[in-house]
Amino acid sequence: QSYCHRLQHDMYFLTSTSRLNEQVVDKIVLQLNRVYPQILTNEEAEKFRNPKASLHTRLSDLLKHLQKKGDRHCQEFYRALQINAEQLFNDLPSRKILKTPDPTEIDTDKEQYMLNDRGPVFFLACFSVAAGLALFWYCCNSETQVIGRARRVLGFSPIIIGRHVRNICMLYLEDISRN
């Protein structure tokens, strides 16, 4: 969609009461007058900054003037609006149409929430089960001599594992080593 069509679509939204105040309109007109490429001549800028005319009239005339000049001028208006009134720029109806999500596109914010909605307790539980299964598989594998290694690891782990759990594991390892 061209910038002229977007501006025509946004015109009512921009000219409605209390959307743009006089200072912001003046900043936009000055930016369009002073920034390269110069969109408004000095005479046009004075006309659109005339305090004798109402803000609604000046803004409507400015938007119509920019639409007549072409797509590049409308694009520069949107750039000036974004710089001087970013919140209003983000609320434009044409921006909301551009922001509508593609149904085939993945919403990363929603996907992030979906992956993280279980919390840290779930992660710790899964990690504990995985670590326990790995330790059990490592200790029960008959091809490796792990009893001595496991005894050393479990012997130095009263901080990690409770004392009673460590004693049970040690008894289990000694029982396995006798068989």
Automatic annotation (TrEMBL):
The chain crosses the membrane at residues 120-138. One of its GO terms (biological process) is regulation of apoptotic process. Pfam families: CARD (PF00619). The keyword Phosphoprotein does not apply. It comes from the Eukaryota. Keywords: Disulfide bond, Endoplasmic reticulum, Membrane, Mitochondrion, Transmembrane, Transmembrane helix. One of its GO terms (cellular component) is endoplasmic reticulum membrane. PANTHER family: CASPASE RECRUITMENT DOMAIN-CONTAINING PROTEIN 19. This is Caspase recruitment domain-containing protein 19. It comes from Chaetorhynchus papuensis.
